[in-house]
């Protein structure tokens, strides 16, 4: 039996929920028009990868997503205001602007705040 997270390497052949998801394909056109949310996740550090793993905002196909989450911005601990996590990527290279240019009535762009590198201290409990 596959029991996530204890047995992480669950084979698809076991007939668990993964098999059902793969068979149904959650990227069908009617899902975007119906009740389902298809949330895609873009990390601003993905362009630091090497080779084919390098990923840019333009690589996101907004036709597949009802929502695209941009990760991450951070919270200034003194002012409690949002600031760029990686200003060189997010601002100087316009990653946030490039990703938000993909927005449409069918696709919302969201900003994720925090992440494990921005989770120390009490600033989020003070917001």
Main sheet properties: 4 strands, mixed
Continuous helix count: 5
Mean pLDDT rating? 81
Estimate the helix proportion, in percent: 10-25%
Strand portion: 15-25%
Number of domains: 2
Regions with pLDDT < 50 over 5+ consecutive residues?
A: 7-29
Round the Cα radius of gyration to an integer and report it.
Answer: 18 Å
Structural class of the secondary structure composition?
Answer: alpha/beta
Give your account of this protein's structure.
This is GH18 domain-containing protein. With 127 residues, this protein is an alpha/beta fold. The protein has two domains: 1-27, no CATH class; 37-126, no CATH class. Helices cover 23% and strands 18% of the residues. It is built from five helices and four strands; from the N terminus they run H-H-E-E-E-H-H-E-H. It has helices at 17-24, 29-33, 87-92, 95-100, 123-126, and strands at 39-43, 67-75, 82-84, 108-113. Strands 1, 2, 3 and 4 form a four-stranded mixed β-sheet that branches. The chain is globular and about 40 Å long. The protein starts with 16 loop residues before the first helix and ends with a helix. Mean pLDDT is 81; it is low at 7-29.
Summary keywords:
127 residues, alpha/beta, 2 domains, four-stranded mixed sheet, 5 helices, 4 strands, 23% helix, GH18 domain-containing protein, Glycosyl_Hydrlase_18
């Amino acid at each position: 039996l596959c029991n996530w997270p204890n047995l992480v390497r669950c084979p698809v052949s076991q007939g668990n929920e993964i098999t059902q998801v793969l068979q149904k394909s959650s990227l069908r056109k009617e899902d975007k028009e119906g009740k389902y949310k298809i949330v895609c996740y873009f990390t601003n550090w993905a362009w630091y990868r090497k080779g084919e793993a390098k990923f840019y905002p333009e690589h996101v196909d907004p036709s597949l997503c009802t929502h695209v989450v941009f990760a991450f911005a951070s919270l200034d601990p003194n002012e409690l205001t949002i600031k760029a996590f990686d200003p060189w990527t997010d601002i100087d290279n316009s990653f946030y602007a490039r990703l938000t240019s993909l927005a449409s009535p069918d696709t919302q762009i969201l900003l994720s705040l925090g992440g494990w590198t921005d989770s120390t201290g009490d600033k989020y409990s003070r917001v």
